[in-house]
Amino acid sequence: MFADLGHFSYTAIQVAFTFIVYPSLILAYMGQAAYLSKHHRIYTSYQIGFYASVPECLRWPVLGIAILASVVGSQAIISGTFSIINQSQSLGCFPRVKVVHTSEKIHGQIYIPEVNWMLMILCIAVAVGFRDIKHMGNASGLAVITVMLVTTCLTSLVMILCWHKSPFLALVFLLFFGSIEVLYFSASLIKFLEGAWLPILLALFLMIIMFVWHYATIKKYEFDLHNKVSLDWLLALGEKLGIVRVPGIALVYTDLIAGVPANFSHFVTNLPAFHRILVFVCVKSVPVPFVPPAERYLVGRVGPPNHRSYRCIVRYGYRDVQEDINAFESELIASLSDFVWLEASLGGHQSSESVDGYEYGLTVAGSNLLTRRRLDYNTELPSEENAIELAPETTVKKVRFFLEENNNSALSEAVREELEDLLAAREFGCTFILGHSHVQAKPGSSIMKKLAIDVAYNFLRRNCRGPDVALRVPPASLLEVGMVYVL
């Protein structure tokens, strides 16, 4: 039923389960129980009560139905595994893997290639290793009853926290169903050495991976928050300190939505130069299939206008695919131009609320609040003296910024100068700055912590998808800044 939620509606599943699945299950179990109660010993070569109770003429058709049922069950296990891994990854509890969304309407229809291959290898290993259907049945039985027991416990919590039912009613529910499931669970534990150990071992292994990854991820984020640099430090960087502003655009990727990340300060400290246009980019995934281009970019200013520093939050839906990096650069520059126009039309910083020092609130660049002053895809426009055209050589797309007459000539000149700086920096190209972290435990940490961070987490980090692959950053424009996280 869990897997079918990604393909059918609630009503269809309720009707099918109530009138077809449940009566069929009850009849099958009652018939098998009646046969076993009368035939205490099975003398057939099958040694399986279910097939022994089936008449000889129907045995092969029933076997075909059982094979089809196993296919459906395996599909449910695969879909459930994909969903759990995806949710764990979203919560920061599992290493980054490739998630392919196969539906534009239903969020739950996904495919994870790495997990699919791992499931295939585990199935072959279990079949070759056990070579006994009874051991496989013991492992499956313990897994099923454990899932039922855990589901009952979680449902009792849902009744209190989500459904706002009485705690007494939740306790009655837990004791009634939980006591029955505990009996089956204890009976399955008797077969622990006969194959039932496998699901417990796999669960323990996955729990260790999730705990290690979540623990190190939280510690890394806390390290970034604790070591982030204030905006005053960034604004104080100038020629007096030997800092050089080189031509071009620097896109600094970070998970922080405020402040300057530590990897950028580490970069400037060791190489006292950064680009003329500085953009702190934070990429976020939202639980909708598509984000319209007009609502994708949240842009704000970091520091005064003459510093040419911005912050941009890029939002992608789970079906959005960023294929062309040149298109991303053009859209980002166009969004920055939209923000400059909007800020000028609303009277500068007076329209925004200060968040942190010189950092201001973010604006949806490209929304209906703007009169579109840029046209894409080589739109023919009459030549004007007050038009600035952005046409990267590596792409056929063009973006034009039209400077209209304004009552405040100083404001128009400032806007023109800032747009000209964007144009000049775009012609020099974009550099993608990513942090390349190395994590190690603090001196004097326990052996368990050193094993978890120095060995387990670093092994998982090296063998999972890197941020440059997930963000589709071109290697020729990538600049990685090494950082050592001491947790």
From TrEMBL:
The keyword Membrane applies. It is found in: Membrane. The chain crosses the membrane at residues 12-36, 57-78, 110-130, 142-161, 167-185, 197-216. It is a multi-pass membrane protein. Keywords: Ion transport, Membrane, Potassium, Potassium transport, Transmembrane, Transmembrane helix, Transport. GO terms for cellular component: plasma membrane. Its main location: membrane. It comes from the Eukaryota. Residues 247-486 form the K+ potassium transporter C-terminal domain. Pfam families: K_trans, K_trans_C. InterPro entries: K+_transporter (IPR003855), K_trans_C (IPR053952), K_trans_N (IPR053951). Residues 1-235 form the K+ potassium transporter integral membrane domain. GO terms for molecular function: potassium ion transmembrane transporter activity. The keyword Disulfide bond does not apply. Belongs to the HAK/KUP transporter (TC 2.A.72.3) family. This is Potassium transporter. It comes from Musa balbisiana.
